[in-house]
Amino acid sequence: MATRDATAAVAAPRAVRAAAALERVRWLSVLRVMLGALFVSVFFENLNKHLYEAKGYAALIGGYRAEGNAPGLWKDFEKFIADHGSFFAPAQAVFELSLGVLLVLGIGTGLVALVTAGHLTALWVSELAPRRWVWEILSVVVIAAVVGLSALPSLLDGRNRARVRLLGPPTFGPGVGATARLAVAALGGLALAGVILAAKTGGTAHYEDVAWQSGVTFGALLVLLGLLDRRREREASVP
Question: CB-hemisphere CA count at 13 Å for 220?
């Protein structure tokens, strides 16, 4: 009995320390970075499949119109977009890559994440179809909205300087050193590349290119995030 009590006494502090460590993780930042990774990979997938070119873009939108259950007014809007694909295709490329970069770096998160939720909602409406699961995109819309609404108060807080509000809070904690941040960047890049390779995202003709381009870009952005967090920590210390 005494041995069992002693073991329980040792286990309890360990459990408390583990719980405290989990509480220190900024889980909304994890979701934000995940959304950024999504857009980084989508950008390179669409780029390699030539969907950011007028012809491929028009074919994609045409597929949505033919197969989807979107309202008629929305399909008319899609036709307008497809007919002007020479403008909207590269514009969407820049827009989606910008969302990915800003989400990973955590810049203007309150606004950027809400814009992301709106963009994903438009995609969700376009992709409504019997062959698709309704939750495929809707769940990501909810995540983006939660991230945006959670970050919006600090972005709008007039008590802080505009630069501090735009940069937002650090993603890494102050106790996370440079080595750990580089490790996270390397592991994040490898993880994204590995997932794409496993799923063959982009199709058999493109998935290897999508994997290494997405992985390298995401890893580099995580390195920049670590450096930007140093700037955030310095800004926060200035009265």
Answer: 9
Spatial distance between the Cα atoms of 134 and 141, rounded to a whole number of angstroms: 12
Q: Is 78 exposed, middle or buried (0-12, 13-18, 19+ CB in 10 A)?
A: buried
Q: For residue 1, give both structure tokens.
A: 């009995």
E-only strand ranges, the chain: none
> Measuring CA to CA, which residue among 96, 98, 225, 111 is closest to residue 165?
111
pLDDT at residue 131, as a whole number: 75
Q: What is the pLDDT of residue 130?
A: 76
Location of structure tokens 């007028």? 54
Determine contact, residues 87/60, Cβ cutoff 8 Å: no
Q: How far apart are CA 29 and CA 32, in angstroms?
A: 5
Please check whether residue 113 is in contact with residue 103, taking contact to mean a CB–CB distance below 8 angstroms.
yes
pLDDT at res. 1: 47
Give the residues of the chain that fall short of pLDDT 50: 1, 6, 8-9
Counting Cα atoms < 13 Å in the Cβ hemisphere of 229 gives 20
pTM confidence score: 0.88
pLDDT at res. 27: 79
